[in-house]
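The methods section describes the discrete structure representation at length, but only in general terms. An entry of this sort, consisting of the sequence and the corresponding backbone structure tokens, reads as follows:
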Amino acid sequence: MGAVRLGLSQGVLEIRQFMRSREQVMFTLAFPAILVIIFGSVFSGTISEGVKFTQYFVTGMIASGLMTVGFQALAIQIPQERDRGVLKRLLGTPMPKWVYFAGKVVMVAFVAVLETVILLAVATLLFDLRLPDTAGRWLTFGWVAVLGITACTLSGVAFSSLARTGRSAPAVVTPVALILQFTSGVFFVYTQLPVWMQETAAVFPLKWMCQGLRAVFLPASFGAAEPAGSFELGRVALVLAAWCVVALVLCLTTFRWTTKRDG
């Protein structure tokens, strides 16, 4: 229980630091909801029988939100903390190293849940989003979200070692996140993208997160419109789990507590 309490305490500290940054709160929580309002108002038609564009778009925005919280935020935040010497100072304290990562995980989980609730509330109230109507769909929503946020969080920690300085981190991370969003079926219907773009996006987790969430929010018949003719939930789970393993290995082998100038 002492270890759990220590991890939760670090998580509460991380959440407080996040909430004190108005710009970060605005971008992380409000920006996805604003995009739903804009796209939902502009594209009010349907993409197939019984499927409105908003219903499709929300699935991509939820997945994109999870990626932003887990991957983009950590891949930018950690290099900045490393550059300021925060990580180096932590090495000189009695606090176990794992507590730092536990705090990040708690913060990511808190923000991801809050952001998802806001997105669902906005889409339901303003655009009549149809929420999952069976326990099975909610269960699918749960495991896709957990595997997805885990893969993104681990990938964010691993990717944080690429930025040479904290100042350069946004320039390194943001283009990657944007490219994945535009090629993974977030802003456009995935099957309408060029084949080479689809095949490239299929290497990364976001595409599979979007596909898994479409199985939750879209009619079962829409699965026939997917590239493989179904939602492929088994493959979604396999790919996301594989990314969790690969990203974890990269975290363990590449993570740096100090900058190169610190030695």
Summary: The chain has one domain: 2-262. Residues 2-262 form one domain. The longest strand covers residues 46-48.
